Amino acid sequence: MFGAHVVVAMPGSMSRRPIHPLHAVLLAFAFPLFLGALLSDLAYWSTFEIQWANFSSWLIAGGLFATAFALLWALINLFRSRPASRRGFAVYFFALLAMWVLGFVNALVHAKDAWAVMPEGLYLSLVTALLSLVASWIGYSGFRAGDVT
Amino acid sequence: MRRSLLLIGTLAMALSACGNDPTPLQYGPKPDLPEPQRGLLPEMVISRPANWGNEQPTVPQGYRIAAIATDLKIPRQTLVLPNGDILIAEGSGGGAPALRPKDLIANYIKGLGKSVVKGGNRLTLLRDADGDGTYEMREVFADNLNAPYGLALINGAIYVANQDALVRFPYRDGQTKASGPPTTITELPSAINHHWTKAMAASADGRFLYVGIGSNSNITERGMDAEVDRAMVWKIDAHTGAHKPYATGLRNPSALATQPGTGQLWAAVNERDEIGSNLVPDYLTSVREGDFYGWPYSYWGQTVDPRAQPQDSQKVAAAIRPDYSLGSHVAALGLSFSTPAMGARFAEGAFVGEHGSWNRKVPVGYKVVFVPFRDGRPAGDPIDFVSGFLSTDGKARGRPVGVTVDPRGALIVADDLSNTVWRVTPNSPQADLSRTGIISPVIN
Fold this sequence. Notes:
- The structure holds 2 protein chains of 2 kinds.
- Chain A is 71% helix and 3% strand.
- Chain A is mainly alpha-helical.
- In chain A, strands 1-2 form a two-stranded antiparallel sheet.
- In chain A, helix 3 packs antiparallel against helix 6 (120-140) and helix 5 (86-110) runs antiparallel to helix 6 (120-140).
- By secondary structure, chain B is mainly β.
- The termini of chain B are far apart.
- Chain A binds chain B through residues 48-51, 53-54, 57-58, 61, 105, 107-116, and chain B through 15, 38, 40-41, 99-102, 217-224, 274, 306-310.
């Protein structure tokens, strides 16, 4: 029924297993929301229309809220993984962590009033969106079968 | 809660741009204006409320202070009527919606420094019939108002500036209760009402009322559209309600007063936050028709604030410098000119009620100062007149708002944290030259 669970781990096999569906749902917030924040920052940058800055603030807050759980999940997986496959989980966790920490700094920058958000907020939104793409890419590529997810 | 506040404080220190808090020259006509600075978190130190116990605010030697009314519902401004009765405006306005996650958090934190009592939306009248300094009578003069703030008595009527309208009650000497609901003279700008207080002063001839309308944001973070008819003083015809902007670019003109003798309008103005402990100075200034004071584009004259975009260089060029800095973040909310009946040291000048800071590492304000005047202009540093609102362990026992000089020789101070009205009097009576020429009957 769940394709992920019928894959049989073979010694030396490079078959990959996807992350848990709920973990995937949480991770799915990251790229759309942080990309949305980047786009609304660009809109604020070019129009001075404050509502775009408000949108950014909420998109970043939403992204941080959902991905905090994904980050926790990634951390637990990292601890539960076998030493042989730990590296993959570690890369995923630290990519997600970097995204989250920069996203949090970005949330604080976006809490400044009016144009004080710029230009740091725009740069941070760009980096956070890129890191969310990287973390999602790694996460959705799956991990070596036989290890926990 | 305390732990999370501590955490916020520690984070703020760790993330702030600068560790020390030098105190530059902040008083007078030429305050030092340091470079703007803002860490990842604004400097926030909330003085948590505490009770007075048996203590009282501190007043200068030769003066005494008494609580003449307690358990009020957020007293803000007071008015001394001709027969000596005191009218107190009680209420709490605002309620601007939170637009960002930051607003939710900041509102919660700032709320920790405020009274939990609900605003009364009323006027309370106090009377000391026998002149012994005890106001033994207390009546609700009018209720069902909407966050009343500015008060004025002209032409036999009491004018009240609600947060959304200027209204009028007929008044005859000795009246203790309004005869009915008030007449609306004119609506006042009230959309959003980020800064909701409507300070008021009457012109010397009683023809006009000046009403202060604060900005709808700290620095345009609710958008420029929200600032139409904001950050200005209106001149209103007391009869017809016809009005026009009198002076603009005043971020939050939260106290207005007409100077005795000259008839000049003065304002205490609260300036913008979140660019450092020592920016931007709140100020006291004479306000003339057509003056523009810079908000939001610039401060203290022509120092540009890049947070306000798009900028307007013509407006910046037109911005004038205020007369007198009271210090950054003191939150001047009360203003009243003195009379000789207050005693020789405090005869010429203005009292300023300072509600106290939140956006500063070392709290300032939380007191009533006296700004000495000479030849009708501020001359010299402010002198503490009522202090001790902050306890030695940094808790706030009260927060002064409105101050009103009673021409008989007393200063009335509204305190919206301990919900008290204080009265400060000289121990020895002074000749009351300003009003009647008779000696005050209060003898000690």
